[in-house]
Amino acid sequence: MPVKRVSRRVAIAALPVALAAGYATAQTVAAPKPAAKAEQLSPDGKRYLAQPLVTEIYAADPSAHVFNGKIYVYPSHDVDAGIPDDDLGNQYAMHDYRILSMDRVGGPVTIHPVAIDVKDIPWASKQTWAPDAAYKNGTYYLYMPARDKQGVFRVGVATSKSPTGPFKAEPEAIRGSYSIDPAVFTDADGSSYMYFGGIWGGQLQRWATGTYDPNGGDTDLKQDDKPALSPKVAKLTADMKQFAEAPRDVQIVDAAGKPILGGDHDRRFFEASWLFKRGGKYYFTYSTGDTHFLAYGIGDTPYGPFRYTGRIMSPVQGWTTHHSIVAFKNRWYLFYHDTQLTNKNHLRSAKVTELFFNPDGTIRPIDPFVK
Ligand code: FUB
Q1: Domain tally for the chain?
Q2: CATH number of the domain that 40 lies in?
Q3: Neighbour count for residue 196 (Cβ, 10 Å)
Q4: What residue numbers bound the domain in which 141 lies?
Q5: pLDDT tens, residue by residue, 51-104
Q6: Of the residues 61, 132, 220, 290, which is catalytic?
């Protein structure tokens, strides 16, 4: 999640003072109130559709799940390490995870204490990026991408008896894991699958040949007339801690069944995989990265192929766009982030809005700004 081709960088606002603080205990904060009129406008004069879930910390890449009748959001915990923007994403210098929970959308949100810090992840060195979580047989699993000691992104797992941690990390990253943005989906038969990958700062292009090539930085840029680099999927072992198979390509195809090409930046996969099931169909959703769309394809199995179907959300404020989609009390919700509070690409706030489907199962696209 680098900053090449930044097209919408905007002025820097003052940071809320409370944001630097960590909390030793959980903190419940009031439901987001409508901000003052001036605050509701983006730097280019647009009015935000939703307000940040919390303003006490920065929370990005929100992976939402329903556990025990509540919504738990597993975000990246954005911090400002004072690192200037670069193409490798070093400015995204997160080092721990804080979990959010709520009894209802629009109600108070609890910010839980640090669930795990990078210093307690034996294999990791830095950059705890977009996580996801899962539950099985009384245990909660936190899936965490981070750079290993050699600087290569891997995905590891940590466990807890509580959805909010503290989590204990496995000593090693998941064998055969690489790149970023894990999303774990559990099907009705109890099988769980991890979707992952992200190009550019997420290093997926360095794995194009199947092994890590530290000089493989431009692979995706040579793909214009070839199938785009694919996100990956692997079934998880019964204990949820390893891949049960070698990762496979997630195929995203056009209406004719042909792979989306690398040059098709409006539709090709960049990062931020998510998968949900509705009406017997599997929806693979993702970010197109440099074109800033949340997009989706629909398939008949968890492995795909997924036929590109359209956009979920048009560009938010900020360079990155990332999301999750969850059903709760007979409604569907899109969790996403933007940079409303800071105008800095690496200091983001999680938001939520309701998601609606058309009778044919397609998604009604969302504009993050109110007209
Ligand atoms: O938060 C760091 C990275 O930014 C994530 O891994 C990407 O999906 C992007 O949101």
Answers
A1: 1
A2: 2.115.10.20
A3: 29
A4: 27-370
A5: 999 999 999 999 999 999 999 999 999 999 999 988 789 999 999 999 999 999
A6: 61
